[in-house]
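Title: Prediction job returns without error message
Component: structure pipeline
Severity: low
Priority: P3
Assignee: unassigned

Description:
Job completed but the reporter wants confirmation the result is attached to the right record. Sequence as submitted:
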Amino acid sequence: MSGHDTASAPVEIFKNASEATHHLADWLLKLTLEKTDGPFSLALSGGSTPQPLYSLMASEPYVSRFPWARMQFFIGDDRFLPHDHQDSNYGMLQRLLFSRAPIPADNIHPIPATGTAEEAAKSYEALLKRFYGADQFEKDRPLFDFNLLGLGDDGHTASLFPGQPVLNEKTAWVSSCVPPVAPYTRVTLTYPAIHASRHLVLFVEGAGKKEAVKKVMSKDPSCPASAITGMDDVRWILDEPATPDCVK
């Protein structure tokens, strides 16, 4: 039985980041091939941890096996920057995955980078609602088949940072936010949109994250990731250095 929040979620532990990345690629391929009715929707994260995964997906044997034409790609959060900026999550995905795999251009949905961050959030929410086919989430009908999240050492995930007003958002699917120390305004999925995921993965590596993982698993309220929930399957994928002693 899969957990539906970060405290009860099962934990998969791998010797190192490379083994964890290959496992995740294999599992994601299996999920995409198993779903043959309609599109397979993914929300992908930024940061350094998933970058080897994206490169792996765009290389053999994976690149010729993923059903790219049925996959719809969304961005879980991004800095409000031009898409070709070196700190853009979309730009990173474009370099490592989107430009290297045969993905139809219409299947890639970046967060807008024009206007204001508030306008970009509203535009992206409208796009998600069109894709979902409704303005309100329906019970047991996910928005995302697969949602990949990371974890900051301060316990943030996506661009849900400690102490920020976005943590109190109950209705909007997408919101702009200004992290307390980061230099850029962000646009991020909110808790309600993240919850609307069939498979939700917290993918974390490195000894520097061990304490944050421990806090989130114990539902420390100072860590925004502690409040993450999913519609069905929530799980951790960790390498050994990121794994707290309490779960080894």
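Comment from assignee: result matches the submitted record. The mean pLDDT is 96.
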